Amino acid sequence: MNDLATFLQIDLQTLFYEARSQGQKLDFEKIWNYFHTRETESLIGSYIYMVKSEEMDSQKFENKLQSIGYKIVAKTAEVRDGQPVYRGIRHDINITMDCLDKLDLFDKWILMSTNEGFADLCKYLRAKGKKVELWNFKATYSSKLEAHADRLNFIGEDFFYKKPRVTVFGFNCDPSSISRDSKPVDEEK
Q: Domains (ranges, CATH) in the chain?
């Protein structure tokens, strides 16, 4: 068994918006469990890069991420005309600097992001003898990154929250489709 020291970085903002565009929500506990149970690696760090807004309290979410074991790197969105502005807040530099800062500590780098701007970092890491594993959504992955990765994986159902299933009269259904005002068919007569 080859135990590679591995560094995981997750660009939460880019993943969040792509998952939402697919009607999904990422389950960061499933992601943590997946990477921390792979037998060929040991994680030296698991970082999540996120953008916060003063208008929205994200403390509960941050506490959850920290309780799972992630280190959070956060930036605060600028407020213009009373609204948070998320555009232009990117973690490219933070991700790159943290990666380079830990360069001597890992053999393998895992990046979960939809940002194709990391191609040069991928190329640099491979030139330094590091393994590069990328995770992205199939609909948005970039061939620019793929050319400089040892492995490209697609984020799918295994990393999404599963909606709880409810059985009503022997049928499975989405709980959001059940009205609290519903009456059994026999009562409507």
A: 4-162 (3.40.50.1010)
